[in-house]
Amino acid sequence: MTADPAPAPQAPGADGPAADPAPRRTPDAAGPRLVLGSASPRRLALLASIGVVPDAVIPADIDETPKKDEEPRPYALRLAREKAKAVAAGLGGDDAVLAADTVVAAGRRILGKPQDEAEAYGFLSLLSGRRHRVITGVALRRGGREWTRRVETQVRFKRLSDAEISAYLRSGEWRGKAGGYAIQGIGAGFVPAINGSYTNVVGLPLVEVANLLQGAGVPVTWEGSPA
């Protein structure tokens, strides 16, 4: 796993770092209202596992089409930032908005959520017997400031037979999953090894997200339920 260094807080749209540091939560502070800019049940469950329950869930409505020649790493972070910005635009200034985007990268090719079974078949055939990367961009906005992370995990797939792919497609688990598989489900049987964050592959790198939330004053109790 590789995690990009944390940038200093930035004013939205600014290229350089802002002067003020991230807010720090005091032990008796309740923290800001937390809004999750995603309807993903996996992200909700992962947050709950560290004792974080969003006050609201508002999925972002943005165009997720990759730009011409856009590579997976900048694409994932761009979408996370755009999601957070879109949700924050309709909220109070002190609300904390957490958004993320996870992509599977086969070389420079971005594998998002397959649109249909045929595309899912193509994704799984491409990943079969190869290593690929799972990249999650994370963005947190509060009070006109933004913090970001980008985390990458290497995943190795075993060689899949046509019968295995067909059976997996019949399960329906591929729907709504970047790359067309779920490592936390039946798809775990395709993965002999990973290098990096497991929760990143599920959809949210918890170590990095917890650090972001705590730095922005959002309580993380670590008293949650298993994801």
Can you describe this structure?
By secondary structure, this protein is an alpha+beta fold. The protein has one domain: Maf protein. Helix content is 27%, strand content 21%. The protein is built from six helices and eight strands, in the order ββαβαββαββαβαα. Strands 1, 2, 3, 4, 5, 6, 7 and 8 form an eight-stranded mixed beta sheet that branches. Helix 3 packs across helix 4. It is globular, with a radius of gyration of 18 Å. About 11% of the residues have low confidence. GO terms for molecular function: dTTP diphosphatase activity; UTP diphosphatase activity. Its cofactor is a divalent metal cation. Its main location: cytoplasm.
- Tally of individual helices: 6
Strand content: 15-25%
Task: Report the count of strand segments.
Answer: 8
Largest sheet geometry: 8 strands, mixed
Low-confidence stretches: 5-29
Q: Would you give the CATH topology?
A: Maf protein
Instruction: Please provide the ordered H/E string of secondary-structure elements.
Output: EEHEHEEHEEHEHH
- Please identify the top-level CATH class: Alpha Beta
* Percent in helix: 25-40%
- Average pLDDT, all residues: 88
Family: Belongs to the Maf family. YhdE subfamily.
Function: Nucleoside triphosphate pyrophosphatase that hydrolyzes dTTP and UTP. May have a dual role in cell division arrest and in preventing the incorporation of modified nucleotides into cellular nucleic acids.
Biased composition (Low complexity): 11-21
Region (Disordered): 1-35
Topology, please?
Layout: E1 2-3, E2 34-36, H1 41-49, E3 56-57, H2 72-88, E4 96-106, E5 109-111, H3 117-127, E6 131-142, E7 145-156, H4 162-171, E8 193-195, H5 198-202, H6 206-215
Parallel strand pairs: 2-3, 2-4
Antiparallel strand pairs: 1-7, 4-5, 4-6, 6-7, 7-8
